[in-house]
Amino acid sequence: MSSEQTAYFERLRMHLGLGDPVESDLVRELASHVEDRVGQLVAGGTPEARAREIAFAGFGRPETLAHLVRQAHLVTPWLEALLGAAAFLLVGLMIGLGLWQQPIAAAAGGTLVIALTLYGLWLGRPPWFYPWAGIALTIPIIVGYVAFAVLQRETPLLLDGAAGPFGLAGFAGALLYFPVGLVVVAAAVLVAVRRDWLDASVLLSPLPCALVWVIAIQRAGGITSAGAALTDTGALLCAVYVCMAVAALVFLRASVRSFKVTTLIGAALVLVLGSTLLLDPGGGLVAFTGRAALLLAFLLSPALVARHA
Amino acid sequence: MAQTAIDRRDRRDEMMTLSSYLTQLLKGNTDVLILSLLQREPMYGHQILQELEQTSAGFFQVSEGTLYPALYRLAREGYIRGKWAKLATGQERKVYALTKKGDRRLGECISTWSGFAAAMERVTTPHP
Fold first, then answer.
1. A188 or A147: which carries more pLDDT confidence?
2. How far apart are alpha carbons A246 and A267 in whole angstroms?
3. Averaged over A32-57, what is the pLDDT?
4. For position B96, what pLDDT does the model report?
5. Considering only CA atoms, which of A71, A28, A303 is closest in space to residue B66?
6. At what angle do helices B64-76 and A62-74 cross, to 10 degrees?
7. Cβ neighbours of A142 (radius 10 Å)
8. Helix or strand (DSSP H, E) at B43
9. How many other C-beta atoms can be found within 10 angstroms of the C-beta atom of residue A218?
10. Chain A: residue nearest B96 by CA?
11. Which of A95, A99, A177, A206 could be stapled to A105 by a disulfide with Cβ–Cβ 3.0 to 4.6 Å?
12. What does the pLDDT look like over A176-218, one tens digit per residue?
């Protein structure tokens, strides 16, 4: 490959952001096209250097070509879009049917989420990967909740000097968990932002749902005794997750970026409505608006990160 | 003298408008052209451009910057499928083939196009 060719493809890849497997395949294909075109022009009497210039002129500026290729990749095939939406549907069903309280079902669900996330990672992060990775990131929230429960239980014992060695270890672990969890989420978002901030927003979208769920569990008496008290809450949360699944499907199938952003905002508003009905039904318009603003700022924050990255 | 310059400029503007009209027509039909060629036989990118130019006697000159995004879009939508294959020359090329879905889509597009062309013909043909 000539140095001009290398420079062109490097610039192209810089603006593509589609992941290594897709980009390598694309560059391989375009390089073979250049080879064919140059061969054709040289056979027609054009000097090789000029033939190469003509061949690259056909592609246009690498930035423009990258933009057009990215546009072409905005639409996710139906099957992949359904797979992406299935992440929210799975959690919705687990909450709605109370399966999260059955250890085997909960473990099977968690394993499926982690397995599909790792598989997506191995495939080079296709669009369906982000909802699954987002759900996988909610696992630290659940663990964080358990850590919070440990802190709540052990702190008074520790202050009285009555904590045992297991209590001390649990306290230290729980204390360490929060910064580590934050670093994990921040790192995942930063990696996603490098490709497209919208992917990072999708990655973040399940986190507020999980937070609402955890608050609901805490209000219903904690993770071990929340069961029966969460029947109505579970139904509403299940409905929110089903709405999120529909939003994910629409988002992945949308071919225009502005429509994707609108879908994301719409899904956020459904979540705010659901969380208000669940946690603070008499909160009033100001509280609702505040919550909506906070959630939108959280979900759209990757755009700011991308701008400064 | 001044009138000639104005006429020349008007003519140039007219040509540019016509060229833009043709570009728009081509842009709206690139997918159908690609699908039609792939219905004949599976082809790779450079081959598609060559076939398009030869079959249309040089009328359709699609640039690489238009072709490849269109190929990727059609592949994403499931109308065509690209696969690396070894040619008789020993070189490897990504060869695109029409899928069943693409074949159906092409049939629909051609039918719409036929209706459109017939209607255009009826409207643009001067009355005797």
1. A188
2. 9
3. 89
4. 96
5. A71
6. 20
7. 17
8. strand B43-44
9. 15
10. A29
11. A99
12. 777 777 788 888 888 887 777 888 888 888 888 888 888 877 7
* B90 touching A (Cβ < 8 Å): no
- Nearest by CB to B76, which of A29, A58, A73? A73
A273 Rama sector, left if φ>0, alpha if ψ -120 to 50, beta otherwise: alpha
Tell me which of B72, B87, B92 to substitute to probe the interface with A (most A C-beta atoms closer than 10 Å).
B72
Model's pTM, two decimal places? 0.66
Nearest-by-CA chain A residue for B89: A36
Question: A65 and B46: CB-CB below 8 Å?
Answer: no
- A60–B46 C-beta distance less than 8 A: no
What is the amino acid identity at position A55?
A
pLDDT of residue A1: 64
Residue B98: pLDDT over 90: yes
What is the rounded distance in angstroms from the CA atom of residue B46 to the CA atom of residue B64? 8
Average pLDDT along chain B: 86
Alpha-carbon distance of A127 to A255, in angstroms, equals: 13
Mean pLDDT within B44-67: 89
Query: A69 — contact with chain B (CB < 8 Å)?
Result: yes
Quickly count helices (H) and strands (E) in chain A: 13, 0
* Of the candidates A133, A95, A130, the residue with the CA atom closest to the CA atom of residue A114: A133
In terms of CA atoms, which chain A residue is nearest residue B91?
A32
Judge: A75–B94 Cβ closer than 8 Å, yes or no.
Answer: no
Contact A69 B72 (CB under 8 A): yes
B46, closest residue in chain A (CA to CA): A33
Q: What percent of chain A has pLDDT over 70?
A: 90
DSSP letter for each residue of A31-73: HHHHHHHHHHHHHTT--HHHHHHHHHHHH--HHHHHHHHHHHH
ipTM of model:
0.79
B77–A76 CB contact, under 8 Å: no
pLDDT for res A167: 67
Q: Starting from the edge strand earliest in sequence, which strands make up the sheet with B92-98, in order?
A: B43-44, B92-98, B80-86
Model confidence pLDDT, tens digit, residues B19-46: 677 777 777 788 999 999 999 999 999 9
- Asked if residue A121 lies in contact with residue A195, where contact means CB atoms within 8 angstroms, the answer is no
C-beta pairs of A285-288 under 8 Å, 24+ apart in sequence: none
Q: What is the mean pLDDT of residues A68-94?
A: 88
